[in-house]
Amino acid sequence: MELLPKCCYFQLSLIADSYVWWDWERWEKEIDWMALQGVNLPLAFTAQEAIWQKVFMDLNISMDDLHGFFGGPAFLAWARMGNLHGWGGPLSQNWFDQQLSLQKQILSRMLDLGMTPVLPSFSGNVPSALTKIFPSANITRLGDWNTVDGDPRWCCTFLLDPSDPLFIEIGEAFIKRQLREYGDVTDIYNCDTFNENSPPTNDPTYISNLGAAVYKAMARGDKDAIWLMQGWLFYSDSGFWRPPQMQALLHSVPFGKMIVLDLFADVKPIWKTSSQFYGTPYIWCMLHNFGGNIEMYGILDAISSGPVDARISENSTMVGVGMCMEGIEQNPVVYELMSEMAFRSEKVEPVDWLKSYSRRRYGKAVQQVEEAWEILHHTIYNCTDGVADHNIDFIVKFPDWDPSIINMSILAKQEHMQKLLTLHKKRRFLVEETNTDLPQSHLWYPTWPVVNALRLFLVARNNLSKSLTYRYDLVDLTRQVLSKLANQVYLDAMTAFRQNDAKAFSLHSQKFVQLISDIDELLAADDNFLLGTWLDSAKKLAANPGEMRQYEWNARTQVTMWFDNTKTNQSKLHDYANKFWSGLLKDYYLPRASTYFAHLLKSLEHKVNFMLEEWRREWIQLSNKWQAGTESYSIEAVGDASAISHTLYDKYFN
């Protein structure tokens, strides 16, 4: 089988959602896995803050100014994209030095295995101090990105216009500084100046000049530079990027000097509606995961055929395939199939492939498991509703609302949907309008066939008791089934509340809380679902107690509140990076649901209005306390996963 010319791996948000705390041992495993999968074009973005520190200090920007510019370790991706600044920081000199040393190991290993690393380039994001040092520079302060109240400590970053000569000067300096640190390791550089940040005008000539300036900054530092650009903007801001604007940007550099990542091709392929990106080479990419959430989800039919359709289409400019998820270590079946597509010249039949996959994954053929995978193919792994999957199951994305307000006015509902649509662009997931004012989770398949798939998995447990991959899949499938059940239980509780039925409300709310507790026990039995692993890896990177507290706060905050809050308003991004991890369910999601239900029950029993703000005040205080906590969590699995899964199946479905 022949490998496609380019096989790309990683995405900017993956930096924070998955590998921010990795040490060299973990990185080495990942790079070796990449080599086995045929990856030859990985993003290598570690330590860019160490490079920027040197570049900006050469421009007389002090470390004090940089402390307010760089985000904390768990929020680096969004600081790099110009969404925020300072949040979770400052970064210590130990962090800069440690990451720079790690990046050199990463690059060396990638090169040894024949890969071409993709390095970052200058996108225009600059510290505020640059406005004082270069007062005549064309620097714009951008608008708010999801802060609660526009706090200037994290809000509203500064963007240097690519048309300003200083842009090319800084961009050149950054490329050359990387060359000095790493040597001549690549000619491919990523830049996404316009990602979720539209140019000030839609004039094609202006856009063309901007694109030419971005590339000029790269080429001045590396005469052979090739610009690798995410194509997400053509989807997320399609109202701005019409054909004239797209062509202006794509044709602003010499042909062959730009490659576009068709980032969301597994759901919304842009190549089909843009005449193959108007002749620009592109890579067919699977985005798949948002926020590093844990949920069984995929579109196997699209993955097994989409890259081939693109490659053999008329006038195709496709040059490779890529995996550009926001988080890894979930849905292994999806990534196994996608990585194979780099070697495939013909479409894959998912039914046959899944049988082979099952035998390889578990070491033997087991009829019941093969039947279960056939069910999963047509249900969980057949999401065709066009909705980007971002786990909003109620356990991990608990609704913050007042259920006693039943009928929203037409105007209020329009305002509500407009708010959701605005968040869609900023938070990278889609919403669907429904005919109910009850909260809606994302459910794209009938649940009972999946419960039957779980039954089949359990029937096979004696045959596969020693298989760790079977244990992982069994735990994940049980978690998925129980989480979807919890969604319905939550809605039953809300319906009972509206009917002033305190007894039924207590029954359903207690069942919801019990489900959280049961799922936590299940997840504790597999070491792939432990909060302790995430926190422990963060603390291990610290050089002193102060760093340890900061890194742990970063790690805890990213998977919970995420961004800033007030005493009565949660972060607009709360639960963006939610996780089904043992420890997080028991000590965070469970008390959140319990306090909320307690306030609702109080309003029923005392026949008073539900005090949403009172609950918010109590919950936010508890959340912030947990974020700042230092209690330890297990890094080793406890319990018999197979027995727990069987018990829970009997408890809820027999």
Strand and helix layout:
Layout: E1 6-9, H1 14-17, H2 24-36, E2 41-42, H3 48-58, H4 63-67, H5 76-80, H6 93-112, E3 119-120, E4 125-126, H7 130-133, E5 139-141, E6 158-160, H8 165-182, E7 188-190, H9 204-221, E8 226-230, H10 232-236, H11 243-250, E9 258-262, H12 275-278, E10 282-286, H13 300-312, E11 318-323, H14 332-340, H15 350-362, H16 367-378, H17 410-427, H18 447-459, H19 468-498, H20 502-523, H21 531-540, H22 545-558, H23 584-605, H24 612-627, H25 641-653
Parallel strand pairs: 1-2, 1-11, 3-7, 7-8, 8-9, 9-10, 10-11
Antiparallel strand pairs: 4-6, 5-6
Helix pairs in contact: 2-6, 3-6, 3-8, 8-9, 9-11, 15-16, 16-18, 18-19, 18-25, 19-20, 19-25, 20-23, 20-25, 21-22, 23-24
Please give the oligomerization state of what you see: single chain
What is the rounded Rg? 25 Å
Anisotropy-based shape: globular
Within the largest sheet, what's the order of strands?
A: 2-1-11-10-9-8-7-3
Give the distance, in angstroms, between the N- and C-terminal Cα atoms: 47 Å
**Which stretches are low in confidence, meaning pLDDT under 50 for 5 or more residues running?**
408-433
The number of strands is 11
Mean of pLDDT: 93
**Percent of residues in β-strands:** 5-15%
The portion of residues assigned to helices is 40-55%
Our count of helices gives 25
Classify the secondary structure makeup into a structural class.
Answer: alpha/beta
